[in-house]
Amino acid sequence: MWEEIRTPEGKLLFRINRDEKLVEGKKGEWVVVTASLKGKKVKAERKAPKRKWISRHSLQQRSKSMMNKMNTDLCLPTRRQHLCSSFLLAFSIGQRWLLEKGTDKAGNKSSHFKVYLETSLPMFTLYRNGVASFSSTMESGKKYDTGIYFNRSNVMRIGCQTSSGVVSSNYQVNKDYKLSEESGKTIVINVKTATGIASEFVCHVIDEKPFLTIGGKRYEDGSVLYFNKDVIAGFSPDSIQRGDAEIGVTINGLFSSYSSIQTNELTGEEGKRISYSISMNDRAGNVSKFTVVIDKENPSAKWVDGEENPIANSGSTNKNVSLDYEADASAIYSYNGNEYQEYKNGGIFSEEGDYIVILTDQAWNKSTYSITIDKTKPVGKLYSDYEEIEDCSKTNGKVYFTWDEDCYATVNGTPYSKNKVISEEGEYEFVLTDKAGNNAVYRIEIDLTAPSIN
After folding, report:
1. Are the CB atoms for 421 and 398 separated by under 8 Å?
2. pTM for this entry
3. Which residue in 15, 217, 246, 363 could disulfide with 228, CB within 3.0 to 4.6 Å?
4. How far is CA 355 from CA 16, 38, 203, 351, in A?
């Protein structure tokens, strides 16, 4: 069987019959025969123009020093009229290339030319970030899907090992290509060797990272999500992104391949906050990370005065106050029932009135805090014999103290019940205190002693 040997441009140079160890050139060109001559003449067993055969012995006489370096027996035929008087040969049949140069009797010199021989199928290799990811021998006319998927941060390189060492391709051999500079999602690599073996290799680029779906909404890499109820998380990379058993989802350190997990329920507990760390990868090396928090705990806060003393929620105070709350919450407030507006953590309320603050955390849990600022002293009234009298009065009747607000009172330092009658002679000091801590002092004297006449 004859095998054609062509130049990289496709020009036919030789036909080789490896079984008969014959090499035939086109009419009028050089013909090379590889055979074990053992000093004897050899002629080809096929029709050819009449040629003169030069035996290895004859060549040795012409270029003894060169022939001693050759590692194969050689018979070189020439056309009679172009019989060369001297030869310069560098031979490496079956490995690299053949370079011949001849000078005829008239002194004409032939130009150099190369003949490429492939003694084994070329080996194509595809590299990702410097690591060989795909290798295959090449068969002419065959298209290969490498099954290799890149992402835009990867670097691609191709290699092709041939016995001739000569390869042409639309991507330069042994050159790094940054895929961030490449367009399209499919890369087609065309490779052709010196002897015309041409193959096509296909690889892919995945631009889209794995994503998470919850409640019909899509979330991208880096998302931090908060929910106040249990949710179903869906892991939805495109089918082309799914790979072998090493590709899948990791939830709080536990890995599952995409073939075994499509969705997963993320649950929480009442009054607690539970966090899930989720990582998803694909066959292109893309990695997406998510944090999902199931928070069933309402946001907390506390009222404090200017000296950081705590004040009970829904209480009253006569001091300036602020509400300190968790940093991951947001707040709005209303003053005396007016429209709500934004409230900043630690903002000071100083005006008298009623304040309501609504906190909302990232999971949409809500809490309500309220307080009343009251800086006005409470008002009380003194009565003697059931008639109102002025503060600091003196009377000989029965006395009692009363008020309308939600207050408490003391008389001479001891608790006093509203409207309790006092009839004993003496001086009395009433202190009235409201819920905000404001107080007012009232004094009265009961004098039952008749004046004496001297």
Report:
1. yes
2. 0.61
3. 363
4. 100, 115, 65, 10
Contact 403, 382 (CB under 8 A): no
Over its length of 454 residues, how does the chain's per-residue pLDDT go in tens digits?
Answer: 555 655 556 666 555 554 444 444 443 333 333 333 233 333 333 333 333 333 334 433 433 333 333 333 333 333 333 333 333 333 333 333 344 444 555 555 554 445 555 667 899 999 999 999 999 999 989 999 998 999 989 999 999 998 777 899 999 999 999 998 877 789 999 999 887 889 999 999 988 889 999 999 999 999 999 999 999 999 976 666 666 667 889 999 999 988 888 899 999 999 999 999 999 998 888 899 999 999 999 999 999 998 899 999 999 999 999 999 988 899 999 999 999 999 999 999 999 999 999 999 999 999 999 999 999 999 999 999 999 999 999 999 999 999 998 999 999 999 999 999 999 999 999 999 999 999 999 999 999 988 877 6
Q: Which are the contacts of 448, defined by CB distance < 8 A and separation ≥ 6?
A: 396, 425
Residues in the chain: 454
Structure token pair of residue 86: 């001297």
Closest CA to 74 of 95, 53, 97, 102: 53
Backbone dihedral angles phi then psi of residue 66, each to the nearest 5 degrees:
-70, -45
CA-closest candidate to residue 434, choices 412, 403, 395:
403
d(CA 127, CA 92): 30
